[in-house]
Amino acid sequence: MDSLQVTGGVRLAGEVRASGAKNAALPILAASLLADGPVTIGNVPHLRDVTTMIGLLGRMGAGVTVGDRMQVEVEARGITEPFAPYELVRTMRASILVLGPLLARHGEARVSLPGGCAIGARPVDLHVAGLEALGAEVSIESGYIHARARRLEGARIVLETVTVTGTENLMMAATLARGRTVIENAAREPEVVDLAGCLQAMGAAITGAGTDTIVIEGRERLAGCSYEVLPDRIETGTFLVAGAITGGCVRVRGTRPDHLDAVLGKLREAGAAVTTGVDWIEVDMQGRRPLAVDIRTAPYPAFPTDMQAQFAALDAVAEGVGTIVETVFENRYMHLLELRRLGAEVSLDGRTAVIRGVERLSGAPVMATDLRASASLVLAGLVAEGTTDIARIYHIDRGYERFEEKLGQLGAVIRRVPGRA
Length: 421
Ligand code: UD1
What we know:
Layout: E1 3-7, E2 13-17, H1 22-31, E3 39-42, H2 48-59, E4 63-66, E5 72-75, E6 83-84, H3 86-91, H4 99-106, E7 108-112, H5 125-133, E8 137-141, E9 144-148, E10 156-158, H6 164-174, E11 180-184, H7 190-201, E12 205-207, E13 213-217, E14 225-228, H8 233-245, E15 249-253, H9 261-269, E16 273-276, E17 280-284, E18 295-296, H10 308-316, E19 321-325, H11 334-341, E20 345-349, E21 352-356, E22 361-362, E23 365-367, H12 371-383, E24 384-385, E25 387-391, H13 394-399, H14 403-409, E26 413-417
Bound molecules: uridine-diphosphate-N-acetylglucosamine.
């Protein structure tokens, strides 16, 4: 397995370009299952999770071609097997996103339950209950969700908890249901809005995406379309923190500043000068050490759980004490134990972490445990004395496109060390 070797101490400076958003590309790829014609998707990030989703579509019988610069064309008319096996769902929870489209389009779907996950229980009960509300018959057999419906019927669904992929699954299913579906307490994430944009391009009738009430008028069929995935706000935020943590100046181009309000607010609190244009964001720390910030994660537009670990790294070297409260996932603190190995002073009590900033971290071998945790270890490595070796970076490859190359463009001393197969 490959590892990353980071030598700390360089103040990052320069520009990088944001990639397409993983969490928008995955549901949009799944949505292509609904269309009667080819769906061409642009700005798809080249990531392991995307490759997994493309593999899943292909395995089910869809024709998938990947063109220049990751333009992906999916022709899903020939689906022969509406089935997502455990081997794939196990490696990527977001495979659950094929459940709604398969059921709506083919009247049947068998998708493996995702199983345990490193960042908490993460059940899919709300996906299942929502599909049942739309008239599906769902049974759980040998670890598989087996859903059937001749034709889904529109319904009013009140989600008990705000769930991103749950909202997406139900919105996709409802596009081909008979009549009107109303999803209340829907997730408002920009990726939900992007998926709605793609479904609308296919001819779906959706209003309210981006608010907590989404209304879908079901259609008889959806057509093929062309669509561009929006920029990745979490990748953007990660590079901005890389600038701030090293006291540097980093500009991210090709991004959406309006999707990062909560994150930019925290970077300003940390003492960074933040400037934005229509499609760029610059963070300038002017050589200063960041100030500690308090973070409380919650669904969009509040501070994203997917940026929590990166800010934990920032707090680890900041001036003062920062408190982090994780309200979305109960067990998303694995990175804190690894940050401790680099010298961070962290105490954890339930869902609250208190981080007392230290003047310097020192390089050590650490292990990536999940996607964003891995990014936080790389960020910490950028400011640690000496060399930090981060093992198990396949997690990073799941969600960051050319991570070490982009950090290298900003001056970071980072290299991938190929492991034994
Ligand atoms: C998505 C994102 C992930 C992000 C998360 C929260 C994708 C592919 N992944 O994950 O990067 O960290 O949103 O912003 O978009 N829950 C239930 N029952 C359900 C579904 C969810 O109890 O049926 C709970 C979860 O355990 C969690 C909370 O709801 O506590 C939010 O999870 P959810 O929004 O569903 O996360 P994902 O969609 O899996």
